[in-house]
Amino acid sequence: MKASKSGEFALIDRIIAEINKVKPGEWNALVSGIGDDAALIRTRSRYQVATTDCLVEDVHFKKSFLDWNALGWKALAINLSDIAAMGGTPNYALVSLAIPLNTEVEDVLRLYRGMLEAARESGTIIAGGNISRASEIAVHTTVIGEVPARGKALLRSKAKKGDLIAVTGRLGAAAGGLRTLAGSLHAARIDAEALEKAFWYPQPRIDVGRILVKNGIRCGMDVSDGLVADLGHILEMSRAGARIEAARIPVHPSVAVLGFEGLDLALTGGEDYELLFTGKKEAIEKVAAEACCPITIIGEVTRGAGKLEVVGSDGKLIPVENGGWHHF
Amino acid sequence: MKASKSGEFALIDRIIAEINKVKPGEWNALVSGIGDDAALIRTRSRYQVATTDCLVEDVHFKKSFLDWNALGWKALAINLSDIAAMGGTPNYALVSLAIPLNTEVEDVLRLYRGMLEAARESGTIIAGGNISRASEIAVHTTVIGEVPARGKALLRSKAKKGDLIAVTGRLGAAAGGLRTLAGSLHAARIDAEALEKAFWYPQPRIDVGRILVKNGIRCGMDVSDGLVADLGHILEMSRAGARIEAARIPVHPSVAVLGFEGLDLALTGGEDYELLFTGKKEAIEKVAAEACCPITIIGEVTRGAGKLEVVGSDGKLIPVENGGWHHF
Q1: Positive or negative: CA dihedral A214, A217, A218, A223
Q2: Residues 6 or more apart whose Cβ sits within 8 Å of residue B214
Q3: EC (chains A, B) (predicted)?
Q4: Strand order in the sheet with A138-147
Q5: B82 assigned binding-site residue
């Protein structure tokens, strides 16, 4: 049935029914959820971390390769990743959904099911939302989390000269997945599946974010625009420089097979939602021992304000100007 | 200059500059704002109220009568109204903006200026946001506020038989304004100005919301879908009925001149963002003495579950089925 035929309130009732299928976690934070003017939530900490991000048709995905369940997962996961990038714990999410009138109700429910999977895995409550018609699909999601204290957060401005630079997981797969879905990259079937999964189902590194803070790391962010662009944000806000080695970049195996193109995707592709952070060697080693994903040291923070050097395996600098994903 | 020519980061820098022009209030809640993965905020209370709402081109406004400053004001104000409708105090907002590439940078700044006016008047911090291109303009805004304690909130489910029903301010002007702007209602010039202002610049009743809670009122919401539809939400969630008198409805003078059409706008028009609440006569009288806007008793809560009767001045029932604003 189309959303237009179902009507707004009937559609909202079906969404609420999906949300109510998910059992609340141990921390019974939700005093009053969907159905009132605003959600009412009890928090543990007075220090909140809050972020919002959106996925818009024809900007972040094409209808030709849209997977509604995946869209729901990703819409929440990219916000959870921002909370992880602050070293925070997510508490609740608000979802503002815009859909064309001819959208199938079942597709909207698929979107919510995907989102609820990401919510359940991360202990996040879908506390409220809004639905409007629009000419294209857009999912605007806000996540509110918390950190235990003022100083217990990862900021972009805290990189210090001499810090090592490290990254979680493998890079380049999400951008490879987008290109595979859009038909501009032809990978072997097994790689294509891995790449498309990396594009649609990013894994927010919430546990690692907390491990970083626990071990005294104070500078971090997530890789959403691409490694080079995001490291640039850290350098700009920390008034520092960096030197990273191309040979150390943990290129995802499914794009590493592409050679230099794979390295380029890892450096500038974006949407990997891994954590990029800086800190002392000993702290990073402790993090690596605790984290359940690879932690790779890729370079170090230098004095040169804003200057980023990427050194190739031949010792020469690789030009990286204009790297990263721009929304315009 | 068009947004496409300015580029994403330059546009964000200009938006940040606008936001930084506004001095923070006494409560220095913002630890770290725009520029990091998430905003970091310190709150007073552990009980949060959180809401999200959007304004989308061709659904909530037409480009033909778009006023960017007003759009910014309204995008925030409608969310502030939801916080008011919980009896809460707004703390901070996150703004997810979607704009076509050919949008003028100056128009985006106008939008933010309008939003910042509403933020300043209500003591709300614009703590973060996101910007994306899209084929149509959409402003998705989230506001997080707080209430002092669990029971100190207005809920839709708390109406009790015998409660009187009251509403703040005057109704029908916002819907009259929309019709005037769209050209389907021709009002005298002086009325047209008042109506258009009511449509674009709703005044969130934050102070009244707090006065309600302070005086023991426990049931309230804001009038966004229209008086009949919204009272219907209260009745459904409170499993109660209501009987209201048409002659008591505080129809806005600029639509009251239209006779029955004015009453209809007040009953079903929506977007007035006044507060609708129920409580004991003595509590309402105390509220009326403290509030800086008119408080009008329009009827009472009855036993009949979900049943709403609107009694005309001739004593006969006025049919009100299918009243209110639907988004589909």
Answers
A1: negative
A2: none
A3: 2.7.4.16
A4: A125-133, A89-99, A138-147, A47-56, B39-42, B30-32
A5: yes
Q: What is the pLDDT of residues B126-165, one digit of tens each?
A: 999 999 999 999 999 999 999 999 889 999 999 999 999 9
Total domains in the fold of chain B:
2
**Under-70 pLDDT residues of chain A:** 23-28, 321-328
Residue B325 located in a structural domain: no
CATH of the domain at B141: 3.30.1330.10
Q: Are A279 and A166 in contact (CB under 8 A)?
A: yes
- Asked if B325 and B226 touch (Cβ cutoff 8 Å), the reply is yes
Instruction: Give the pair of three-digit tokens for residue A11.
Output: 């559609």
Inter-chain touch A38–B145, beta carbons under 8 Å: yes
Q: Which residues of A are annotated as a binding site for substrate?
A: 60, 271, 325
Residues with Cβ within 8 Å of residue B240, at least 6 apart in sequence? B159, B160, B161, B234, B301, B302, B303, B304, B305, B306
Residue A183 sits at the chain B interface (C-beta within 8 Å):
no
Q: Which domain holds residue B111?
A: 3-147
For A304, half-sphere exposure in the C-beta direction (CA atoms, 13 angstrom radius) is: 8
My answer on whether A305 and A179 are in the same domain is: yes
The CATH number linked to A229 is 3.90.650.10
Do B64 and B96 fall into the same domain?
yes
Question: Which 8-state DSSP code applies to residue B74?
Answer: H
pLDDT of residue A52: 97
Chains A–B, number of C-beta pairs less than 8 Å apart: 232
Whether chain A has a CB inside 8 Å of the CB on B102: the answer is no
Does B215 share its domain with B308? yes
Alpha-carbon Rg for chain A in angstroms = 20
* Residue A57 lies inside a defined structural domain of this protein: yes
Could you say which of A147, A167, A192 is where a domain stops? A147
- Look at residue A324 and tell me if it is in a domain: no
Whole-angstrom CA distances from B277 to A281, A321, B121 are 60, 58, 24
Predicted ipTM beyond 0.90: yes
Is residue A306 less than 8 Å (CB to CB) from chain B? Answer: no
